[in-house]
Every structure is written in C-alpha cells, then in structure tokens.
Design brief:
The complex is a heterodimer of chains A (328) and B (263). Chain A has 328 residues and is of the alpha/beta class. Helix content of chain A is 35%, strand content 29%. Chain A is globular, with a radius of gyration of 25 Å. In chain B, strand 1 and strand 2 form a beta hairpin. The chains are: A alpha/beta (328), B mainly alpha (263). The interface between A and B is medium-sized, with 33 and 29 residues.
C-alpha cells in the first residue's frame, strides 16, 4: 500500500504576459494577453513508506507545484493526489499534521528572535505533546547540531545553520512524510554534505518518508533510493539510481595517458572521444565490449603512464534526458 | 489558546527588540493627544455646542476615537497581501491551523501588544495631561464593553473580506487606502456622524461602517443608552452575521485561486 499515490495530476495556471518597457507595461494594463501554462500535465507516481524519493527536474519543471499539491497548498486542475489515504487539498489541516516541509527558498523562522523561539512557536502551531517535543528536541540537538544555535537570533545565523533549524522545525511533530523542496540551495560544499547526512539520519532513525525535490544531482546520488524526473510538467523517467546510470546504455569512459604520442586505437565498440597527443579518451559499451580486451590493446599500443575507467556521471545522463525530453 | 499565547509571546519580543521605535511611538502618542486637544479647543472657540456636543465631550470623543483606532489597527489586510506577495501564503496553508483562524489569533495578539505598548501610554497621556475634566463625561457601561468587542470582530471581518481581494487583484495597497478613507469618514472616526447634514447622516447609518466607531463612541459619550444602545448593539451583531457569511463564501473561492510561483 503506497503512502502517496498521484494519478494523472494536472495543474494549469493562467498568467498574464508582460512585455518590456513602459509601453509594454501600459499595454498589458489595458489589454492583457493571457496564456495558460500547464505546470503539471498528467503526472502519475507512487511513493512507499520509508523511501527517500528524489524528485528532480530543471527549473520550472513542476517540482515545486507537485509538492504544493501534496502539501495541500494548491488544488489540482485535474487528477488526484492521495497522501496517506486522503486528498491533501481537501483536508488541509488533517494532512498538515502528518507532514513536515522545508521550502528552501522560504523561511518560516522568526527573523529577529532566537532560533529556539521559532521551535517553541511550532510546538504550539502543531499542538505537540510535551514528551514528543522533548524527545525530538533532544534528537535535533544531537543529530542536527542545534545546541549552540538555539540562543542566537535567526538573523545572525548562516544559511546552513538556518536550514538546520528549518529541518528541525519540520520534524518536531514527528511527521510521517517530510517534503524538502531544494533544501541545499545556496549552501556550500560542507553545508550540503552535513545536511545530506542529517536527512539520511532522519530517514533511517525515524523511518520518515522523504520526498526530496532538487536539481542538485549530488543530493540524489547521496540520498535517494529512487528517482523521478519530470520536465515541462510531464514525468520523463522513473526508477532506481542504478537503472538511471544504465539508462543510456552501460557505457564506460576510459582515460589513458601514454608516455609518448600514440596513434588512435581502432577497435570495434571503442569510440574515440578525444585522441590528441599523449592523452586519449575513449567511450565503450561495457555490455558489448570486453573491458579486459580493450585494456590489453591499450597496453600494447604504447607505454601507459596512467589509466582510469569511469562510469558516466549521473549529471550527464540527466542532461541527456532533459535535452531529449524522454528516453527511447 | 496555546497558539495565541505563543504568538503573543513572540510578537511582544519582536516589538521589544526595537526599543528606540517603542520610545518614539510613546512620544508620538502623547503628541497626538496634545494636537487633538488643541485642534478641538480652537474649533470650539466662540461656540458652546455643535449638534448637541460640547467641547469637552468632543475632545473625549476624539481621544477615544484615536485610542479605539489603535485598538482596531490589526493589519490583517496587509498581512494577507504580504503573504501573497512574498508567497508565504504557501507556508500558512500547509499548517494544521485554519488560515483565517490564525489571522484572527495574530490580530488579537497584535492588539494586546499594541495595548501595552501604545494604548496605555495614550490613556495615561490623556488622563493625566488633559482631560481629567472631559473624562468625567464618560459613560462606561456593559453595552460599551460589548459594543467595543463587536467592533473588533466587525473590523476583522471587513479586513478579511477586503484582504481576500488580493487573491484576485494581487495588489491592494491602493484599495486599502481608499477603504480606509471611506471607512474613517462613514464610521465617525474622524468627525462624529452627528455633525453630518441630515441626508448624509442617514446614508451613513445604512452603511455597515457606522457600527465600528459610531456605535461604541456614541454609547461612551452618553448619546445613546438603554434600549437605543441595545438596538445599536443588535445592529452590530446583525452586520457580523451578514459579513461573516460573505467572508466565508469569499474565502472559499479565494483559497482555490492560490498561485505560488517560483519555488
């Protein structure tokens, strides 16, 4: 029984076209030109309890819109979303008790007051029982490293610190599902890394299902068991991470450094990507060509100084999926 | 109730963060009372009474109206508009508290904070500084207390109704000013409705605005009492019922229109 079931979800917005310049603004004022944008155009998927689902897509793909339907903020134009058995946009408050959310671009913290006050406020908003509050606060202090942040006014916290408080705020009421909409946006490398560890920990320790909308591929690689890719309001790919890697065939990239200049190697199944001078880059399809044979051929071609074999990076695969719109 | 207490606590602390602003506000309130006193004293020079209201009563009316104005300044429309503009409406709708209810709670908390930081200074300035004599004319009755409470609810309903327009127009800053002028004029906040020409007075009595300022202030200066006061309070109640029905309808439609762009 899936925890979240989304069926043929559609959300259309009517927007007024704006033109450049003052004349354009005036024209839009008098005779506005409207157009309908299909932010979601028939999306279906399901999420099982305990999963960390990566929900990815380029800017404007419809990630946030989906999350806003699932959190009950937006009412879909057509289709249905079921979260734990009820429609979030019809049972907003009931749904709100079961979910936690962090919108990376919007803060819920009280800007001028110490971070602890915002958490205390959340306790009253969600009517969190004392024992649950204490237990979760203890957990957040330990795992999210909140201890020394709590007494500082939010305005002096760094972005990374603020995001930690936001996540703590989202899980104080022990939600079943945690929606994270670009939680690592704008963080530095260390900050992103720490945040990912925290999300993983929350998922493991509490068994909270996490829906992670992002366009940071590293988030996906480090965290997600399953990935859904949407683009222009349509679902273009769904599966686990391994399958995504293999989505474009089981290719490997071989980079060789020769001691001297060597003629490009000619072999069936071996595609030379760049073979200038001493450094050669080849792509091979590991399903049809034996890697071992290729390595032997390379060793015979000249003296090999350095050699590396890499699986294609996920980012490349996703880029291809974006540009092609869908997979064959 | 817990929510109200928490909101109140945080709003207090936010207000107290700006001590300078607080000090300036107190000073401004004292000055406002001075100005009202000077203005109406000047206007009443050479007259004993206008439309049955003498100078002392008028000063009492003006000061009370100002204090009532602070009490009723709940900024609900601005809150709603800001939530829509910044997109924070998303965060509001995804909470386990109904948005209109949380708006009301926030307004009440805001009023209590205002009461301590602004109304008390007003009252002290008013009582100590000038109108010891004028205050003698004040009639504090049960009807007054009830009608002020009803004024508060009415004001909240107006603001929710008006604020809901932002779901359609996306911007209401200009409309709020317009609403404010019409309401201040026809509610008797600036000038008692008794000063109006007869036809305008009757028109004002048909509009819903008079129930906000005119009713409690008239009860306070003793212009209406007894069964008249009961009637006026009854009319306030009727307006509350009508407006809350409309607000409910409008709100339901508004919330379906929520659009949140860009993240």
């Amino acid at each position: 029984m899936p925890l979240i079931q989304v069926t043929d979800l559609e959300k259309h917005f009517t927007i007024t076209k704006r033109r450049h310049g003052v004349a354009g603004a005036l024209k839009a004022l008098i005779a506005p030109e409207r157009e309908t944008v299909r932010a979601l155009d028939g999306v279906s998927f399901s999420v099982d309890p305990g999963e960390i689902l990566g929900y990815i897509g380029p800017n404007g793909a419809g990630k946030s819109t989906t999350i806003k339907v699932l959190t009950g903020i937006l009412t879909p134009t057509a289709g249905e979303a079921l979260v734990d058995g009820c429609r979030p946009y019809e049972n907003r408050q009931e749904n709100a008790k079961k979910i936690g959310f962090v919108f990376g671009q919007r803060s819920r913290l009280w800007w001028l007051l110490p971070a602890y006050d915002s958490l205390e406020y959340t306790r009253s908003v969600y009517s969190i029982p004392d024992d649950v509050f204490k237990r979760n606060m203890q957990y957040c202090k330990e795992t999210l490293g909140l201890g020394r942040l709590l007494d500082k006014p939010v305005r002096v916290l760094s972005l990374g610190e603020r995001m930690r408080v936001e996540i703590a705020m989202a899980m104080l009421h022990s939600p079943k599902i945690l929606y994270l909409d670009e939680p690592t946006v704008g963080l530095d490398v260390v900050g992103k890394c720490e945040l990912r560890d925290m999300i993983k920990n929350i998922n493991r320790q509490y068994g909270i299902t996490v829906i992670l909308a992002t366009h940071d591929v590293m988030d996906i690689e480090k965290l997600c068991s399953r990935v859904i890719i949407i683009d222009r309001g349509r679902l273009v790919w769904e599966g686990d991470l391994g399958a995504l890697r293999k989505a474009k065939g089981n290719t490997r990239v071989i980079v060789v450094d020769f001691a001297s200049e060597v003629e490009p190697l000619q072999m069936p199944g071996l595609v030379p990507a760049s073979t200038e001078g001493q450094k050669h880059v080849y792509e091979i399809d590991a399903d049809t060509v034996d890697v071992d044979t290729v390595l032997q051929a390379l060793a015979q071609a000249g003296q090999v100084l350095d050699l590396s074999i890499a699986a294609p990076d996920i980012e490349g695969v996703i880029r291809e999926i974006y540009t092609e719109g869908s997979l064959p | 109730m817990k929510y109200l207490a928490a909101t109140l606590r945080l709003q207090f602390r936010t207000t107290l963060t700006f001590r300078f602003d607080l000090a300036v506000t107190v000073l401004r309130n004292v000055l406002t009372v001075c100005c009202l006193f000077a203005l109406w004293t000047a206007l009443f020079t050479g007259r004993t009474a206008v439309a049955g209201i003498d100078k002392n009563t008028m000063i009492l009316y003006a000061v009370a109206s100002t204090i009532l104005g602070v009490f009723l300044s709940m900024r609900v429309e601005n809150n709603m508009a800001e939530s829509i503009h910044k997109g924070n409406i998303a965060l509001m709708l995804a909470r386990p508290i109904a948005y209109p209810l949380s708006l009301f709670m926030d307004a009440v908390a805001n009023t209590i904070v205002n009461a301590v930081t602004r109304i008390f200074p007003y009252l002290i300035a008013a009582v100590i500084g000038f109108c010891l004599a004028e205050c003698a004319g004040m009639r504090i009755t049960g009807w007054l207390v009830i009608s002020i409470a009803l004024s508060y609810i009415l004001m909240f309903l107006y603001q929710v109704l008006f604020g809901s327009l932002v779901f359609w127009t996306m911007d209401i800053a200009g409309l709020i000013e317009y609403r404010d002028v019409v309401m201040m004029l026809f509610s008797g906040a600036i000038v008692p409705l008794y000063f109006f020409p007869d036809w305008l007075f009757r028109m004002a009595m048909f509009l819903p605005f008079q129930a906000i300022y005119h009713t409690p202030l008239s009860i306070m200066i003793g212009r209406i009492d007894g069964s008249d006061a009961a009637m006026a309070v009854g009319l306030q109640l009727a307006w509350i019922v009508v407006l809350s029905l409309i607000a409910r309808l409008v709100w339901r439609r508004a919330v379906r229109r929520v659009i949140v762009h860009g993240g």
